[in-house]
Amino acid sequence: AAFVAALLSPGPRLGGARVFSKAELAKFNGVDRSEIYMAIMGQVFDVSAGTQFYASSKGYDFFAATDGSLAFVTGDFKNNVTDDVSSLTPTQLYQLASWVNSTYHAKYVYKGLLAGYFYDARGRPTPALDRIHDLIRQETLDMRKRQADELLYPKCNSKRAKGLNLVWCKNDMVPRRRVVYGGQERCACFRSVAVADRDPNNRRYLGCPETNSTCHRDPA
């Protein structure tokens, strides 16, 4: 999770950065000016090298000259091109943070910060960004715990087709609905009924005999 550490501990690349207003950023659209800038999580990048994506009439031109952080996650490019990410879950914020470093800092030129949801007019983190950092830190810890949990209790196999929605386990293991760190739920396999049912974080699938290795997934 190196990108999380980089996001949470801004280094020299963020120090003394230019702070753009939204009106200033709006001019860098490849039309009013030749350069194309965009922002993600309040960090501004020159994406002119990606004109095949961000130039006018291209597939992601709605990201040019603005911060559309919410739409990066939701995929709603009509209604969610905004920097307000208050509706995102910790896992989604973690994913968004990964794109900042794994894609944008890696491929494009960092130009500064955008005054708005994430930074104020002086480039200082807003209370909203402080909260996001806290959520990402906790999600990082929860993710590691979930990974360790999967080593103990493997993921179920699943199949959805022709009205079927099945989960199953190999080697005579039994499937259970398991609530894991961060409140997420997954299907996990256990080596015996006794092991599966002694943990209050596990629930049987409705209508599935306790010893079955295959169950119908509960309706949403």
* Overall mean pLDDT: 90
Strand order of the largest sheet: 1-4-3-2
Order of helical and strand elements: HEHEEHHHEHEEEEHEE
List the total number of helices: 7
Whole-angstrom Rg: 22 Å
Unreliable stretches, pLDDT < 50, 5 or more residues? Answer: 1-6, 8-12
Strand content: 15-25%
What is the CA–CA distance across the termini?
A: 32 Å
Helix content: 25-40%
Number of strands: 10
Estimated structural class? alpha+beta
Query: Mind summarizing the main beta sheet?
Result: 4 strands, mixed
User: What general outline do the C-alpha atoms trace?
Assistant: elongated
Would you mind describing this structure in some detail?
- The protein is α+β, with helices and mostly antiparallel strands and 220 residues long.
- Helix content is 32%, strand content 20%.
- The chain has seven helices and ten strands.
- The strands form three sheets. It has a four-stranded mixed β-sheet. Strands 5-6-10 form a three-stranded antiparallel β-sheet, with no helix packed on it. Strands 8-7-9 form a three-stranded antiparallel β-sheet.
- Strand 2 and strand 3 form a beta hairpin.
- Helix 1 (2-8) packs across helix 5 (90-107) and helix 5 crosses helix 6 (127-152).
- The radius of gyration is 22 Å and the shape is elongated.
- It starts with a helix and ends with a strand.
